[in-house]
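Chain A, query sequence.
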Amino acid sequence: MVRNFDLRSSLLSLCILVAGLFIWHAATYVPDTGPIGVVLTDDQRDALLAKNMPAEDIELYSSQGVEFPQLEQIAGLGLSRETIEMAGGIRALGISVPDENSAPAPGSLFPSPAQIGVELWATITDPFYVAGTNDMGYGIQIGYSLLRVVIGYALAAAVAIPLGFLIGMSPLAYKALDPYIQVLKPISPLAWMPIALFTIGDSELSSIFVIFICSVWPMLTNTAFGVASVRSDWINVARTHELGAFKTAMTVILPAAAPTIITGMRISIGIAWLVIVAAEMLVGGTGIGYVVWNEWNGLRLDRMIVAILLIGVMGMLLDGLFARLQRAVAYTE
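Chain A, predicted structure.
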């Protein structure tokens, strides 16, 4: 019966995936009506790059149908794209370019499932290459993100779990600390980033601090709740056997509260992975969150979507790890 249910759920998931890919393909399909934009030769690209024209500007202008002679004129101005746009566009500078209506439709610029598949395969077959400061494999970038998450998460666990034990075992401590917890818990983790950058002054440590502050609260509250919910008769039995406070906590309270504690840790790791991506977009440098922002700035939507998919897969793996741990410590009375 269970295997039959698993099979049906797997088939339903597969059908949903196929339907989603079909809708995606249909939404991004563009009939072949001839070349879109301008196709530049390698020599032409090299000539423009030699004039310090950014590669993303070359890609954008050529996709809009700007020919090579006009691209040379733009490169000769030595102006950034932002400056040109502020001045009113390319035409305002006296350079003849195609009409805006000749630019490709937005749908044709969004990558199709096939393009994403090609980019995803290239990514997973060479995840650890290093070709420059801003050009590294996604395996390395995910490694940077995971390292920040692990450090901030471990520090949060070292603070939250012992403090949660104290709050759960002491009504006095609970009453004293509860107002602070209720005030600090709802604050968005990213709201701490400006304060962290100002006080710490280092973007790397600031991102770790944000992970720490967002991971503390679920672990703290769940640990306190789990410890406070341990049946009093179990604790009374421990006292009858004259167990000390530490031994009672380790042999009675911890095993009984473990499922609730792991639940808090599972929630925290999900929030930590969610927040590190947003934090890396703000601080930049390295990490999978920075990759998403960097690829967007370069209009590499295919690589950006692959990075987003990898973020989701990594989050699923982290959640699955704690789900297995949760099942391992579960018990039946």
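The longest strand covers residues 130-132. Residues 245-283 form the longest helix (39 residues).
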